[in-house]
Automatic annotation (TrEMBL):
CDD domains (alphabetical): RseB (cd16327)
Domain spans labelled MucB/RseB C-terminal: 233-331
Protein name: MucB/RseB C-terminal domain-containing protein
Key word Signal present: yes
Highest taxon listed in the record's lineage: Bacteria
Length: 342
């Protein structure tokens, strides 16, 4: 125990010495943490850039090449996995296509950025301050570029914390570390090379995998409009409790590749973290399961309703207690029909 405490204290001391005084950095840049995050959002969507990054998670480490271009406000993006089976993700506006080495294609007709760190982007980063403490913590260096470090620490027990390293010149994200409440790393994303602001050739934005498509699946999701969309006969399922600050932003329905039954999904975000809730008619032999892998918690529970038994699954960057509470709060809209095919 003493060794662990000493190690953590030493780590924090080393980190403090490395990144220096937050007060000095704020004075040097004149920008607050929220302003840096706002700049990151803008840079992420408006700049041309390409490079390579690593994504370290509970299952191992992935190396990924990224190319991002913006023309007349239209974003285009391509990610290529550099290790393991060949895989590419190509985005043109809101249309996202995933292609594997067997030429199996999945098209998302309304997708978000396929980037793993797309989740750090909020329409209003300043709103994060309601549920996180934001602090400019100092300076560092990533991929040969000068970086500003922003600490994002949760104000409650329902979410994790982040170290966000931003390119001082462009505000682009250079490194993201996801931390649990003990300050232990759960995931890390870090650029190893990055070039910003140059023209991107068309050839770098199209899929390189050739040959006829073996299979193709299209997934259409519906963006949730808080002002206009209300739960109704076609939206029977809803979540009665989510951690403060999380809002529903998308819902869709597709068929499980295993059971072939319809699965309804509801996606939530607080502007930084995210989770999804899946509801399907209880498959044969389905059981309740709790699984944690790094930052991802998966909580599955069979619940009984008047219309029968259903399998409720919550998956996301949440502590277990929060995932369980969310799952247990799933309800059917009173008086509506069950929207899941049994």
């Amino acid at each position: 125990m003493k060794k662990r405490c000493w190690s953590r204290a030493t780590s924090w001391l080393a980190f403090s010495l490395l990144i220096g005084s937050s007060g000095n950095i704020l004075a040097e840049t004149g920008l607050s943490a929220a302003q840096w995050l706002t700049g990151m959002t803008k840079a992420f969507r408006e700049l041309n850039y390409e490079g390579q990054f690593i994504y370290q998670h509970s299952q191992g480490l992935n190396s990924i090449a990224i190319t991002h271009s913006v023309t007349d406000g239209q974003e285009r993006e391509r990610l290529v996995f550099l290790d393991g089976p060949k895989r590419e993700v190509v985005r043109d506006g809101n249309k996202v296509v995933c292609i594997n080495a067997d030429n199996e294609v999945i098209r998302f007709e309304r997708g978000d950025s396929p980037l793993a760190f797309g989740r750090v982007l909020s329409e209003n980063p300043g709103k994060l301050a309601e549920h996180y403490s934001l602090k400019v913590a100092g300076k560092g260096r990533v991929a040969g570029r000068e970086a500003v470090v922003v600490l994002v620490q949760p104000k409650d027990e329902f979410r994790y914390g982040y170290e966000i390293w931003l390119d001082e010149a462009s505000s682009l994200l250079l490194k993201l570390v996801l931390l649990n409440r003990k300050g232990e790393m759960l995931e890390r994303l870090q650029f190893t090379s990055l070039e910003v602001g140059h023209e991107i050739p068309e050839t770098k934005l199209v899929a390189s995998l050739k040959g006829s498509v073996k299979s193709e699946k299209v997934i259409v999701s519906k963006a949730y409009n808080k002002a206009n969309d209300k739960p109704g006969d076609n939206e029977s399922w809803y979540v009665n409790w989510v951690p403060p600050g999380f809002e529903l932003f998308r819902r869709n329905q597709q068929h499980s590749p295993v059971t072939k039954k319809a699965v309804e999904s509801l996606m939530y975000t607080d502007g930084l973290a995210g989770f999804s809730v899946f509801v399907e008619a209880k498959p044969t032999n389905a059981v309740s399961v709790i699984k944690r892998e790094g930052a991802i918690t998966a909580f599955t529970k069979v619940l009984s309703f008047e219309q029968g038994e259903f399998l409720i699954t919550v998956v996301g960057e949440l502590p277990l207690a929060a995932a369980e509470r969310i799952a247990m709060s799933v309800k059917l809209q009173k008086g509506s029909a069950v929207s899941i095919s049994q």
